[in-house]
Structures are given as structure tokens and as C-alpha cells.
Design goal:
- It contains four helices and no strands.
- It is mainly α.
- It has one domain (2-152).
- Helix 1 (2-32) crosses helix 4.
């Protein structure tokens, strides 16, 4: 029962994170680009603040449930199936990239935006978007590996 709840929470968290990235990058990015630059930056400041709150919750939940499920189900990493280790590696990579996005580029974006430096905040947003695309692709890879590997082997 506990393992089933962990899997459900894990799937919900990955959907919030990867689905949120898809929506922000693919859908929202195009719409927001039609706004005036200062309005765009204010929009992104508010949107990313709210989104990153949910990403932090997802990251904490994913790491906790992921590590817990590996050791609950398999006992240790030595007998864990390769596709789960690949998924975990992608997931840890995503967390590291998110931390770079958050602690470097997002904080710099807020600093530049609050100082009124539109050019500086544009650069930070571009970096957030580029790394967000990398994370989104890694997230899709996680879904493919974990969803397909057990059935393809």
C-alpha cells in the first residue's frame, strides 16, 4: 500500500514539473512574447515565482519517493533494474539543472528586473528558457524510459 501511494505521488509530481515546463515553454512563451517587454518581465517574475514553488515541492517529493521506492522494493542499487537507474540519473540531472536555473539565473533575473535592467533580465530569461528546454527534454526521456523499458525488454 505504501509503495502504491509513493508511485502515485511520484507520477503526480513528475506530471506537475514536466507538464508545467511544457506549458510555460511551448504555450505560454509564445503568448507572452506578444506583450511589451516590461510587461513580459513582470509576468515572468510572477509566473516563475509561483511555478518554482510547485517545482520545489515536486523535487522534494520525487527525491523522497524515488529513493524510498528503490530501497523499499529492491533493497539496494545493485539489484535495481537498469531502466530505473537511468530514470534516476535523468531525474537527478534535472534537479541539478533546476538548481542552476533557480539559484543562478532566476535570482539574477529578479535582481536585474528589480533594478530596472531590462537587457540584463532578458539575458537571464533566455538562459532560464534554454535550460528549461533541456530539463523538459530530460523529463520526456524519463517518461519514455520508465514507461517503455519494462515492456520493451
Amino acid at each position: 500500500m505504501l509503495n502504491a501511494l509513493a508511485i502515485i505521488f511520484h507520477l503526480v509530481a513528475i506530471n506537475i514539473w514536466v507538464g508545467g515546463m511544457f506549458f510555460i515553454i511551448i504555450v505560454l512563451g509564445k503568448v507572452v512574447s506578444t506583450l511589451e517587454e516590461p510587461t513580459q518581465h513582470a509576468f515572468w517574475q510572477h509566473t516563475l515565482k509561483r511555478f518554482f514553488y510547485w517545482v520545489w515541492l515536486a523535487v522534494i517529493g520525487l527525491l523522497g519517493t524515488g529513493i524510498g521506492m528503490i530501497f523499499y522494493r529492491f533493497g539496494d542499487l545493485a539489484i535495481t533494474p537498469w531502466y530505473i537507474l537511468v530514470m534516476a540519473s535523468f531525474g537527478i540531472s534535472m534537479v541539478v539543472i533546476f538548481m542552476v536555473i533557480y539559484f543562478v539565473f532566476y535570482r539574477n533575473f529578479e535582481r536585474e528586473f528589480n533594478a530596472g535592467n531590462i537587457e540584463g533580465s532578458c539575458y537571464q530569461l533566455r538562459m532560464i528558457r534554454r535550460l528549461g528546454i533541456v530539463n523538459m527534454v530530460l523529463g520526456f526521456c524519463v517518461v519514455v524510459v520508465i514507461g517503455g523499458s519494462p515492456y520493451l525488454l
